[in-house]
């Protein structure tokens, strides 16, 4: 299970990335809403834990030299 602080951290990071994509016109606002809703629904399923583990593994690969 992920901690609340970790979940907020990931939400902020991915939120910033989404805002930057919308501002760069690579993603339209309605597409960003669809991405957000998809993330919300995935986060409420067991798949959310698997995605979290994958993201944690990926990030930890960059932090180990």
Account of the protein in words:
Keywords: Membrane, Transmembrane, Transmembrane helix. The chain crosses the membrane at residues 6-22. Helix content is 80%, strand content 0%. The N and C termini lie far apart (27 Å). The chain is an all-alpha fold and 65 residues long. The protein is globular, with a radius of gyration of 13 Å.
Shape field:
globular
Assembly type of the shown chains? single chain
Q: In which range does the helix fraction lie?
A: over 70%
Low-confidence stretches: none
Distance between the termini: 27 Å
SS strand fraction: under 5%
- Rg result: 13 Å
Total number of strands? 0
The helix/strand series, from N terminus to C terminus, equals: HHH
* Overall mean confidence score, pLDDT: 75
What can be said about the biggest beta sheet?
none
Keywords: Membrane, Transmembrane, Transmembrane helix
Transmembrane segments: 6-22
Key attributes of the depicted protein:
3 helices, 65 residues, single chain, mainly alpha, globular
Brief summary of the model shown:
This protein is mainly alpha-helical.
Write the layout of secondary structure elements.
Layout: H1 4-23, H2 29-43, H3 47-63
